[in-house]
Specification:
Helix content is about 70%, strand content about 0%. The protein contains twelve helices and no strands.
Length: about 270
């Protein structure tokens, strides 16, 4: 096996991330500051964005569609939606920003300070900043309402699985976008569709049987249900959502690293 292949095996990317962890933290901070530079509110958008999106979501489902869940009423329904919306926000921002991350950083192909393999990792980490701020707010709300249980200690496991999944997907999308810029437009449209076919404002049981396959094939479903069981229900994730989440996370990560390993061979041609 060549040195290049050895340097980018799935496990090797984790070792590379650890080796460059200080650089990765520094460039992630710079990336985050750059995203909000020139903005009047600056980093305050990390909090305003999820709150405004939550308000829109609640208006559509509670006021327009008059959505009612027997087990979640009033403020509990807001927590129910927020639990599902937060991981989706992280996924949406990571895929949207990460799709063009390599194309916009082609100058790093031969950079020794930050290997090009870590550019998608940096993009994912920076995109999860909004999710982390939102999670802190959600944990405070859950504690104030008496819903917070010790099972919330499992939250880092869910976040780690989500990072693995997103890094794998972004590695594929960012590779394709180097040659096909249209991929970014498709991703943005797909994310809009994904928001409404994901059980964020409703439960899986409310979906008509003919459309159940759309939910079962949706990776967001397993991620959202795992987050809800840990945060809102105070339970360990049941085998189906957690097993599906673990499988999707590791499969996405493995596929992404394998795809990028082959893509690196032609990356220099696009430099």
């Amino acid at each position: 096996m060549s040195d290049r292949r050895q340097s980018f095996a799935p496990a090797a990317l984790l070792r590379l991330s650890w080796r460059y962890r200080k650089v990765l933290v520094a460039v992630t901070r710079v990336e985050l500051e750059k995203r909000y530079s020139g903005s009047v509110l600056g980093m305050l958008w990390l909090l305003l964005h999820p709150l405004l999106l939550l308000a829109i979501y609640l208006f559509v489902y509670s006021v327009v569609f008059r959505m009612q869940l027997p087990q979640y009423k009033g403020f509990d329904y807001a927590l129910f939606v927020f639990c599902g919306l937060i991981p989706f926000i992280g996924l949406s921002e990571a895929l949207s920003a990460g799709t063009l991350c390599i194309k916009q950083n082609m100058h790093l192909v031969k950079n020794v300070m930050l290997p090009i393999e870590l550019v998608p990792v940096r993009s994912v980490l920076a995109s999860l900043a909004t999710q982390m701020v939102s999670l802190a707010l959600l944990l405070a709300l859950l504690a104030a309402s008496g819903h917070l249980a010790w099972k919330a200690l499992l939250l880092p496991v869910l976040v780690a699985l989500q990072v693995l999944m997103l890094v794998g997907i972004v590695l594929v999308l960012a590779s394709l976008a180097v040659a096909l810029t249209d991929v970014s437009y498709f991703v943005n449209l797909f994310l809009m569709l994904l928001m409404f076919v994901s059980p964020i404002g409703y439960t899986r049981e409310m979906i008509p049987e003919p459309f159940m396959m759309l939910v079962d094939l949706n990776p967001v479903t397993y991620m959202v249900e795992a987050y809800r069981q840990v945060l809102l229900a105070g339970q360990s994730p049941s085998p189906i959502p957690m097993g599906g989440f673990v499988l999707i996370a590791f499969a996405s990560y493995w596929a992404g690293t394998a795809f990028f390993e082959r893509f690196k061979a032609v990356l220099a041609d696009h430099e």
